[in-house]
Automatic annotation (TrEMBL):
It comes from the Bacteria. It comes from Neobacillus piezotolerans. Gene3D superfamilies: 3.40.50.2300, P-loop containing nucleotide triphosphate hydrolases. One of its GO terms (molecular function) is ATP hydrolysis activity. InterPro entries: AAA_dom (IPR025669), CheY-like_superfamily (IPR011006), P-loop_NTPase (IPR027417), ParA/MinD_ATPase (IPR050625). Residues 138-300 form the AAA domain. PANTHER family: SEPTUM SITE-DETERMINING PROTEIN MIND HOMOLOG, CHLOROPLASTIC-RELATED, SLR0110 PROTEIN. GO terms for biological process: negative regulation of cell division. Pfam families: AAA_31. This is AAA domain-containing protein.
Length: 381
């Protein structure tokens, strides 16, 4: 059994490492220098990591980043002294176990065996839930610095269209934590929300997500609705969102996320994690000004826009202050799609509480839905 689970040992090549290496000779070991561990580990998908006390990085920080990067990893921490405060801190950071070497050298292999066994059960459970290695889904974030620009309308129509026009597995995540919004456009009324994933967020898999998500009736698009209660919403933090998105990546092909205009740690988490950011804007000068502010903010926060941020022009039409050409002159990002102003069609759908898409290959689409369809189809090519 030992050779089938790779153990990643993160530390430095010193006496502690040599002792551990010898004791674990029956396992397949991969040594990772603590100085540059993230870059090294990204080439693997570690399931078990043994973190050694080292002179490069504090164990708590190291464990934090490991879990952030690899939510499924099981971590054993090894120190050379008994230190109860540190033990508490690394456990809180997410280490499953803690040993003092050489004092506890004789239980080391036992502990590693049991970690490996737990890891196997976890991946078997994931396989039976159909969530194992479905590949890497794409996170598509809808954002705008300006409220009311059409993020929620466009993201819901986009997700529904993507679901209807392809065989892709699609999930929609509504992050407008205080008020929601997607339900209005998708005609959904539900008590469930993504906060229901809280008890399982540390081991979250496809099965949990499917249990909590709602299905839009026409397209069968899966939706995770935002909690309504601001107080509950507070416990959904950056780490929660990162874990959720990474779990979704493992089980879905596309993860569409609607982010509110106000920047908070949740929006930040999505914008950092996203493969593409669809920035929604209207054809007027305030929209351009807001985009400039957003650019500055992103730069300060370290959110990369190059090759990620694409402009979606919403409510296009003759009566606008600016044209697409003007936008292209002032804005360096590519314009990926244009969606017409469609007061009649969009309003009627909202008033009826019905989504704009009802079936594949639909004939009578409202103009705005046609534009979204064109955009989705061009993206799938
Ligand atoms: N292409 C369009 N044609 C006509 N009406 C539209 C169009 N796009 C959006 N709307 C309308 O504009 C309003 C704002 O849209 P939406 O709620 O999607 O914006 P938002 O950016 O999500 O707003 P918020 O910042 O409040 O979340 C809605 O009433 C919607 O019906
Ligand atoms: Mg909205």
């Amino acid at each position: 059994m030992s050779k089938e689970t790779k153990l990643f040992i993160i530390g430095e090549e010193n006496g502690l490492y040599n002792t551990v290496k010898e004791a674990l000779a029956e396992f397949e070991l991969v040594f990772i220098e603590a100085q540059n561990y993230l870059a090294e580990l990204k080439r693997h998908e570690p399931q078990i990591a043994i973190v050694l006390k080292n002179g490069f990085e504090s164990p708590v920080d190291l464990i934090h980043s490991l879990i952030k990067e690899f939510p499924a990893v099981s971590i054993l921490f090894i120190h050379d002294l008994q230190d109860f405060q540190l033990l508490r801190d690394v456990t809180r950071a997410g280490a499953m176990d803690y040993l003092v070497i050489p004092d506890e050298i004789n239980v080391l292999t036992d502990r590693v065996q049991s970690l490996a066994a737990q890891t196997r059960t976890k991946s078997e459970a994931a396989v039976s839930a159909g969530s194992f290695k479905r590949g890497r889904g794409q996170v598509l974030a809808f954002y705008s610095g300006k409220g009311g620009s059409g993020k929620t309308f466009l993201s819901t129509a986009f997700a529904q269209t993507l679901k209807l026009e392809s065989t892709a597995q699609v999930i929609y995540i509504d992050l407008n934590l205080q008020y929601g919004g997607a339900e209005t456009f998708l005609g959904i009324d539900s008590n469930r929300s993504l906060i229901d994933l809280k008890p399982v967020i540390h081991e979250i898999n496809e099965h949990h997500i499917r249990n909590v998500s709602e299905k839009e009736g026409f397209s069968k698009l899966e939706i995770l609705i935002s909690p309504k209660d601001a107080e509950l919403a507070e416990s959904v933090d950056e780490e929660y969102i990162t874990r959720l998105l990474r779990a979704c990546r493992r089980s879905y092909d596309f993860i569409i996320v609607d982010i509110p205009s106000a920047m908070d740690e949740r929006s930040y988490a999505v914008l950092t994690e996203a493969d593409r950011i669809f920035y929604v804007m209207n054809l007027n000068t305030p929209s351009i000004k807001v985009l400039k502010h957003v650019e500055e903010l992103f730069q300060r926060l370290g959110i990369v826009t190059e090759d990620r941020l694409e402009i979606i022009l919403n409510e296009t039409g003759k009566e606008n202050e600016l044209s697409k050409k003007d936008i292209e002159r002032f804005v360096k990002y590519p314009v990926r799609a244009e969606v017409r102003r469609d007061l009649k069609g969009v309003q009627a759908a909202v008033n009826q509480g019905k989504p704009v898409r009802k079936e594949p290959k639909e004939k009578k689409l409202i103009p705005a839905a046609k534009d979204v369809q064109k955009w989705v189809v061009s993206m799938l090519k």
